[in-house]
Amino acid sequence: MGFDLGNLLGQYLGGGANTAQASDDFDRAAQAAPRDTLAQGLAQALRSDQTPPFPQMLAQMFGNSNPDQRAGMLNQLIAGAGPGLLGKLGGLFGGNGGKVTPEQASQVSEQQIKDIAEQAQKENPGILDRMGEFYAEHPTAVKAIGATALAVALGAMAQGIQRRNSTSTPEKENNVGILSNIFHKIFPQKSAPAPAQQQNAPAAAPAPAAPAQPAGQAAPNPAPTAPAAAAPASTLNQQVDVEEILNAKLKASGQQLNWRTSIVDLMKLLDLDSSLAARKELAAELHYSGDTGDSASMNIWLHKQVMKKLAENGGKVPADLQD
């Protein structure tokens, strides 16, 4: 009988599973689960209140990685946090155009990784998702975060699969795109403009002629003409304050999500699938011509494009979010 990924992950829903099996179960799940599902689970473990702080877990995975993986992780960390982080590292990784080599990475201590990770998280809270994506490609290094954190990751993977199964099928059947879903979550329902035939209604057809009256009988008074119905007022031109709506959603959610700079956090705030696969789908909708393998560049481009689309379709969006 084949391996049942859903049954395995389902044991970790609600946090009731025996964590003694988490390490072995994670190995099996990492081999069978889609990479974006694994990445989401890891990102959730990195930000969960049930697990150690992000810098500590990242340092543990760094210590369990080979030199190439260490260099790759550091380069992803620096790229995701932006040039501000590189400048604050005091030339620690000088040369090579700012790229960390395996030789340089092997000389970095776990304490230095904690410091770098802490700074990176301040620069860009979405860095946790980027690290989830990176280590989804290197799951053997993940086991260093411990059984409890692995159980959290497995539970988050189960939730992600449940959510996708419950929402993706209707969307695909109705051919609803991700951008349309973003609009639906932000813009209130608006009255549709009056159809063209109502806005430019033709003259009413003449009433049928009254039947001839017998001689000497007065003709009845003609029926009063009903006034033409007014066309429904359209609200399509009313501008929606996108910043106000999203800040209200953020406050209600109680989460720490940086929707102003992170497309991942924006999609999470709107309760939409924020996986790498979903973002690649959104990129295809918006005709992204760059390398989707470079998720950092793609994410920056997607965020700006979504903000521009919101502004073009009746949203009041701060100018700095569209640049």
Strand and helix map with partners:
Layout: H1 5-10, H2 22-32, H3 35-47, H4 54-63, H5 67-81, H6 83-88, H7 102-105, H8 110-123, H9 127-136, H10 147-173, H11 178-186, H12 196-199, E1 240-241, H13 242-253, H14 263-269, H15 276-285, H16 295-312, E2 315-316
Parallel strand pairs: 1-2
Helix pairs in contact: 2-10, 3-9, 3-10, 4-8, 5-8, 5-9, 15-16
In words, what does this structure look like?
This protein is mostly helical. The protein has 2 domains: 5-173, no CATH class; 178-188 and 239-321, no CATH class. It contains 16 helices and 2 strands. The chain has a two-stranded parallel sheet. The longest helix has 27 residues, at 147-173. It is globular and about 55 Å long. The protein starts with a helix and ends in a 7-residue tail after the last strand.
Low-confidence stretches: 168-175, 190-237
Task: Summarize the amount of helix as a percent range.
Answer: 40-55%
Our estimate of the beta-strand percent is: under 5%
Order of helices and strands: HHHHHHHHHHHHEHHHHE
Instruction: Characterize the overall form.
Output: globular
Give a concise summary:
With 323 residues, the protein is mainly alpha-helical. It has helices spanning 5-10, 22-32, 35-47, 54-63, 67-81, 83-88, 102-105, 110-123, 127-136, 147-173, 178-186, 196-199, 242-253, 263-269, 276-285, 295-312, and strands at residues 240-241, 315-316. It has 16 helices and 2 strands.
